[in-house]
Write a structure and sequence with these properties.
By secondary structure, the chain is mainly β. The protein has one helix spanning about 155, and strands spanning about 5, 10-15, 20-25, 25-30, 30-40, 40-45, 45-50, 55-60, 65, 70, 80, 90, 95, 100-105, 110-115, 115-120, 125, 135, 140, 150, 160, 170. It has an eight-stranded parallel beta sheet with strand order 2-5-8-11-14-17-20-22, with no helix packed on it. The longest helix is centred in the C-terminal third of the chain and has 4 residues, at about 155. The protein is globular and about 40 Å long.
Length: about 180
């Protein structure tokens, strides 16, 4: 809680056991801002910026809550989820990352709600081909490339609702346009 970890060649914060809590940390210039494995984490009001890889990386994580975080200007994706289930990203700002804003690779049963995702060099929110059972709704996506992408067959295996964006692949993922 309330740590500032800068310019580490490793991870700013790392947890491999379950039920870790990270609140109001500033993680900048590290390899990864936050790196998690296992289950039940609470990540609240952290800033992950200018990390050489991902702002936040979750590997095989179940039932984590990422609430009101900022993942900005990272050299990789703002937030990357691989092989996890039931994770939630709510009320977060994901901006100006050199890859995807939020990358769901082989992730299932997650909820991505009410986030602002803008100005990322790749897709604002991207679902890998094996991502299934996720709910992506009420996100505001702007100036990403594209704003939202679901690699086949992910477009059919997930729910997209009330997302405001300009361009998606496939086209029907955006409900409202900017």
């Amino acid at each position: 809680i309330l740590n500032e970890v800068e310019n580490s060649n490793a991870r700013g914060l790392s947890a491999t056991g379950g039920n870790a809590t990270a609140i109001a940390n500033n993680l900048s210039g590290n390899a990864e801002g936050i790196s998690l494995a296992s289950a039940g984490h609470l990540i609240f009001r952290n800033v992950m910026s200018r990390n050489t890889s991902a702002g936040t990386a979750l590997r095989s994580v179940q039932n984590a809550a990422l609430l009101a975080n900022r993942a900005v200007c990272n050299h990789g994706p703002g937030m990357r989820f691989s092989d996890g289930t039931g994770n939630r990203v709510l009320l977060s700002e994901v901006e100006g990352n050199r890859q995807q804003g939020i990358d769901l690779d082989a992730h299932s049963a997650g909820v991505i709600d009410d986030n602002e995702v803008k100005g990322n060099d790749a897709a604002g929110i991207q679902l890998g081909g094996t991502a299934a059972g996720n709910v992506i709704r009420r996100n505001d996506l702007r100036k990403n490339h594209p704003d939202m992408a679901a690699l086949p067959p992910a477009g059919r295996e997930n729910v997209f609702d009330e997302n405001r964006c300009g361009r998606s692949e496939p086209r029907e993922l955006c409900s409202g346009r900017h």
